[in-house]
């Protein structure tokens, strides 16, 4: 009873801090305590009828201590949900955001792509910058006829993607390569050519904006998965150049980008990449221009 009461008091304190955060009092301690609320709630729900052992109490406070260092809660609990999948998480691999779930939805809404053309029973996709595997694995889970080639410049990310694929039983339709889209274009062309669509949530933040990120991000996440160079396009440009060579006729590109990027990308396509068409810009749930959809021209133009 004493242990349960202690846990309830802890939960109350966390709940109060969460309400402070919701009210706009965004301090580091508020942020940390809000994240811990769900953790303590889960422990209470699981152990409501039992007394926590010393080891269990130590485990809870070990997790709390990690979060109070500003470690993202995804790394603290070592997993996170993306759409209808639960993925393992490990620092410093990029943590998938809600916007990227919307990026996957754009592909799944494309009936032309999902059903295939000419009654095709297979589809091939390239993901640039797979991170934890969230995009690739979500697509594989939703599209039975899909085969994915995923690449990342981080060995940790490549290993985590494969670990998640094996846990979800999706490894047979996935190839993961340790490759850099900027340096290894020829290798990518030889391994992945052709594909029906390319998808990417590349690093797109302007370098000057990196310093404005939260401590959780700056301290723990891989900066190379975030920093897109002076104009945020240092990785996006090579992706566009690669797309015109990799895609099948009328194959598509789905990109998550910064709100300032869609008109710039459209101009790049029109002026420098005659093999591609800029189809449309889509907004995210906050109504900011976030996604670019491109298409390779058909053989008849």
Automatic annotation (TrEMBL):
Residue intervals of the Methyltransferase small domain: 121-210
Catalyzed reaction equations: L-glutaminyl-[peptide chain release factor] + S-adenosyl-L-methionine = N(5)-methyl-L-glutaminyl-[peptide chain release factor] + S-adenosyl-L-homocysteine + H(+)
Protein name from the UniProt record: peptide chain release factor N(5)-glutamine methyltransferase
InterPro entries: DNA_methylase_N6_adenine_CS, HemK-like, N5-glutamine_MTase, SAM-dependent_MTases_sf, Small_mtfrase_dom
GO cellular component: mitochondrion
Keyword Transferase: yes
Source organism: Cyprinus carpio
GO biological process, one term: methylation
């Amino acid at each position: 009873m004493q242990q349960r009461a202690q846990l309830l008091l802890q939960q109350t304190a966390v709940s109060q801090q969460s309400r402070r955060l919701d009210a706009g009092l965004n301090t580091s301690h508020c942020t940390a305590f809000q994240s811990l609320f769900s953790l303590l709630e889960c422990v209470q729900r699981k152990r409501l009828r039992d007394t926590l052992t010393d080891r269990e109490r130590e485990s809870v406070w070990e997790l709390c201590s990690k979060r109070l260092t500003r470690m993202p809660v995804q790394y603290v609990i070592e997993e996170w949900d993306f759409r209808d999948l639960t993925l393992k998480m490990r620092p410093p691999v990029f943590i998938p955001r809600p916007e990227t779930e919307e990026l996957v939805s754009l592909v799944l809404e494309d009936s032309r792509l999902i059903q295939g053309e000419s009654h095709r029973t297979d589809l091939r996709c390239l993901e640039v910058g797979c991170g934890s595997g969230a995009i690739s694995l979500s697509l594989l889970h939703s599209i039975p006829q899909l085969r994915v080639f995923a690449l990342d410049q981080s060995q940790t990310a490549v290993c985590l993607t494969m670990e998640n694929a094996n846990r979800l039983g999706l490894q047979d339709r996935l190839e993961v390569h340790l490759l850099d889209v900027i340096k290894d274009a020829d290798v990518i062309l030889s391994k992945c050519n052709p594909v029906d669509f390319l998808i990417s949530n590349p690093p797109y933040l302007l370098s000057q904006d990196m310093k404005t990120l939260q401590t959780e991000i700056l301290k723990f996440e891989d900066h190379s998965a975030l920093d897109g160079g002076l104009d945020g396009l240092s990785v996006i440009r090579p992706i566009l150049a690669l797309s015109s060579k990799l895609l099948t006729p009328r194959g598509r590109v789905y990109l998550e980008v910064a709100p300032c990027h869609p008109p710039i990308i459209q101009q790049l396509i029109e002026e420098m990449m005659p093999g591609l068409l800029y189809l449309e810009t889509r907004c995210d749930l906050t109504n900011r221009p976030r996604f670019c959809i491109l298409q390779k021209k058909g053989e008849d133009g």
